[in-house]
Design goal:
Length: 203
């Protein structure tokens, strides 16, 4: 069903400068965390070209046509940065709301985390698998819908990267909301925290 609650009215925040991200990625950390749009809503940046070792075309918007406003009209979403390859995703699994940093950061046999060969992100809570290079679509596990993408803008002259919106609500519809229906992005029962950067540790 179409959503008319308005995902169009998002703030524009500076979230990082390209130099911060490049410094972190060159140290071997595949992601850069930030909060958007609220301070307890964790998201992460990832450079898909660095991750996959090859240029990445625009990624499909799995939520195309599902929400009102301009974001719902974008068939594909472009990366930002010098190679148009930096994307941002919600760091909260849409199944039952587990936060994803731990498994993004830690990759081991029992806890696959972020498969950097294929850009598959694994939620350890119940095994959902998201394919980042295809817009966060679900390729396994119980997640009922794709991982939301945060829309970015890049200022070439300063190198600043801004978050300007998202393509879908972060939380699953299966989670009862305690906030008005026009505020789909915030559930006060959750108290996520956003990891500081750099925060990667492979284990
Ligand atoms: Fe991620 Fe259930 S919360 S798979």
């Amino acid at each position: 069903a179409n959503n008319t609650d308005g995902l169009a009215g998002f703030p524009k925040y500076k979230i990082a400068n390209i130099k911060d991200i490049q410094q972190q990625l060159s140290s071997g950390c595949p992601v850069y965390f930030f909060a958007y749009p609220l301070t307890n809503e964790p998201c992460f940046l990832v450079d898909l070209q660095v991750l996959l070792g090859q240029p990445v075309p625009e990624i499909p918007n799995p939520y195309y046509g599902q929400y009102a406003g301009p974001l719902g009209q974008m068939k594909t979403i472009s990366g930002v940065g010098p190679n148009n390859s930096i994307y941002a995703f919600s760091d909260v699994c849409v199944h039952l709301g587990c936060q994803l940093p731990a498994q993004v950061l830690v990759t081991s046999e029992n806890n696959p985390g972020l498969d950097t060969q294929n850009s598959v992100l694994h939620c350890p809570c119940h095994g959902s698998l998201y394919l980042l290079a295809k817009g966060g679509v679900v390729i396994g596990g119980p997640a009922p819908r794709p991982l939301p993408i945060i829309l970015l803008e890049y200022d070439q002259s300063s190198g600043d990267i801004y978050a300007v919106g998202t393509n879908a609500p972060y939380f699953s519809a299966s989670i009862p909301r305690t906030t008005p229906s026009d505020n789909l992005l915030y559930d006060p029962r959750y108290d996520y925290s956003v990891p500081s950067n750099p925060s990667c540790s492979k284990g």
